Amino acid sequence: GPTGTVPIHRALPDLVKPLARRGNVLVLVLDGLSWAVARALLASEPMQHWHMWLPAHDGRPLAVLAAIPTMTYLSRTALLTGKQGAGKQADEVRGFAAMFGNGATLLHRRSLEENTAEVLGAVGDPKVKVVGVVLNAVDEALDGALQIAVQWNPTSIRHLLPLLSAASAAHRTV
What we know:
Layout (H helix, E strand, L loop, with lengths): L4 E3 H15 L2 E6 L4 H9 L19 E3 L6 H10 L7 H12 L4 E3 L1 H6 L1 H9 L5 E6 L1 H7 L16 H10 L5
Parallel strand pairs: 1-3, 2-5, 4-5
């Protein structure tokens, strides 16, 4: 398997597709999330039963190298489509479905805001092998004019805990 650093356009094909062959998966994208915040989230009390996957070869986390410049329209598109290049949400949705096939679905904020129950239903549906959800809380806080320091925790990221709960109930790898 991959070692060291994985280019962002190879992250889902190289790391998630093998997991999806063994069971259903929820791909959660927390746009703008740093490694430090990810570690803090995983260490928080509501996340205690979730464990980070580590490669068997050395037991250390892999680094995913963002596209340069590190703009959403490049890096997130590369992550969700498996291809380098610029794109928009519609490109991400098409590329994600093409990458995983079998009715894989990618949902952005509008889907969550307009129909949370439908999104949670997709996560709970065993016929949908791969569900992707983009949460923009971190990216939007970084983009704000106030540039405030947020103490991130699972409850400060809207929809995170309900999505994780639905994934757990459905026995999905996240």
